[in-house]
Design goal:
Helix content: over 70%
Order of helices and strands: HH
Shape: elongated
Oligomer: single chain
Largest sheet: none
Number of strands: 0
Distance between the termini: 42 Å
Radius of gyration: 18 Å
Length: 54
């Protein structure tokens, strides 16, 4: 097995890690804004036209 064979797997792994990191940062930012404004998860979901579980 050469480095060429493993490159696609490594790049897809790093892409998944990057998506997860950005998702956590985005979620943290949303939570901070929501809490600063005194909104519950239920209120925020309703304003966004979503279910709380989403």
């Amino acid at each position: 097995m050469s480095i060429i064979d493993t490159e696609p797997r490594l790049s897809s792994h790093f892409a998944a890690v990057r998506r997860q990191a950005w998702g956590k940062m985005f979620g943290t930012a949303i939570r901070k804004v929501r809490e600063t404004r005194g909104r519950s998860l239920e209120d925020t979901a309703q304003l966004a036209g979503m279910e709380t579980s989403e």
